[in-house]
């Protein structure tokens, strides 16, 4: 029988969360397909986030599977514009030439080419996803006139019954989406349901309410306030940017526990932004604190770790290599015992 973690790792990558809402796990990040009317899947719908670079064909294929082949979304709405959530936007907008993109005004600099995000922070620790974050793209996307600010009244284009909430911290303009009917929360990376810094937890999809991915979060005070605000919604469903959606009492109790103990459970003890936030405004990033480790030292350390791991693998293979047949005998040489 599979363990809980192993069974979670085999969870389908594309599946319904609740009626009218589907999730696609794109390698390690989630994006969502929301029907305007939950009971009418062949009607209007909205895409929430856009996944990793190179995923546009997959995103469109699953949309056709649920909503019909000639039924593009009314809109694409963004929780935020990190590369794993916005990576396929350029390709999708070519496939859907009439579709507009909506994001919070403070997120627009990163979608209109005006500003890069603050640098990721590998020094927060927690696992391979964090340690390798210096390799992740942080450049802005330039969607030009295709991107618009979300409506000031809190409504969500194309999704009656939903509203957006500003939940900054992970990014300056991060938002979450909430539907009163069924108390469904699409939280982006305001919190997650997997320990996103760990490659092992990401692979097994070990389920737990966890803070935003630490390596990409530049304002921990704002992130703490955002989690506390989401607790007040008393959600029945928590669909996040990373991890399997959670439901009911387990979701609510773990989310409340995270809010109360946020600085202990989520905020890194060390890190570039752990005690000093990056500063951003409507034009983008204005200032960032200095890195804890210089890029050269960091690169050398990671390179050394990789070379050491490769050396261990090669040495292990050499030790276990079977003895060759002796060429000077008429019959095979007797194998020698392994030396440990």
UniProtKB/TrEMBL annotation:
Q: What are the alphabetically sorted keywords of the record? A: Membrane, Transmembrane, Transmembrane helix
The organism's superkingdom is given as Bacteria
Task: Give the transmembrane ranges.
Answer: 296-315
What InterPro entries does this protein map onto?
Metallo-B-lactamas, NDM-1-like, RibonucZ/Hydroxyglut_hydro
Q: Does the keyword Ligase apply?
A: no
Q: Mind telling me which Gene3D superfamilies this protein's record contains?
A: Ribonuclease Z/Hydroxyacylglutathione hydrolase-like
Q: Which part of the chain is the Metallo-beta-lactamase domain?
A: 28-242
Q: What is this protein called?
A: MBL fold metallo-hydrolase
Give the source species: Hymenobacter bucti
């Amino acid at each position: 029988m599979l363990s809980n973690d192993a069974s979670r790792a085999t969870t389908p990558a594309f599946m319904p969360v609740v009626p009218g809402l589907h999730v696609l796990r794109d390698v390690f990040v989630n994006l969502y397909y929301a029907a305007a009317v939950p009971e009418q899947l062949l009607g209007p719908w909205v895409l929430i986030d856009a996944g990793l670079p190179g995923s546009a064909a997959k995103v469109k294929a699953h949309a056709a599977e649920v909503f019909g082949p000639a039924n593009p979304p009314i809109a694409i709405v963004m929780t935020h514009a990190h590369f794993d959530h916005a990576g396929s936007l350029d390709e999708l907008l070519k496939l859907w030439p009439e579709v507009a993109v909506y994001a919070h005004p403070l997120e627009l600099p990163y979608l209109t080419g005006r500003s890069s995000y603050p640098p990721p922070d590998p020094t927060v620790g927690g696992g391979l996803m964090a340690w390798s974050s210096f390799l992740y793209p942080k450049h802005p996307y330039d969607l030009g006139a295709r991107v618009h600010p979300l409506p000031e009244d809190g409504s969500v284009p194309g999704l009656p019954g939903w509203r957006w909430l500003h939940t900054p911290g992970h990014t300056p303009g991060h938002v979450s989406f909430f539907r009163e009917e069924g108390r469904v929360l699409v939280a982006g990376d305001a919190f997650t349901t997997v320990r996103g810094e760990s490659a092992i937890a990401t692979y097994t999809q070990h389920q737990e309410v966890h803070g935003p991915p630490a390596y990409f979060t530049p304002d921990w005070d704002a992130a703490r306030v955002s989690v506390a605000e989401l607790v007040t919604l008393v959600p029945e469903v928590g669909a996040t940017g990373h991890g399997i959606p959670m439901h009911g009492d387990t979701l609510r109790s773990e989310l409340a526990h995270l809010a109360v103990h946020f600085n202990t459970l989520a905020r890194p003890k060390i890190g570039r932004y752990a005690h000093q936030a990056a500063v951003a405004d409507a034009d983008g990033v204005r200032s960032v604190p200095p890195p804890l480790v210089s890029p050269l030292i960091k690169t050398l350390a990671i390179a050394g770790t990789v070379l050491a791991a490769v050396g261990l693998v090669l040495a292990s293979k050499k030790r276990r290599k079977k003895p060759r047949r002796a060429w000077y005998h008429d019959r095979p040489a007797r194998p020698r015992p392994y030396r440990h």
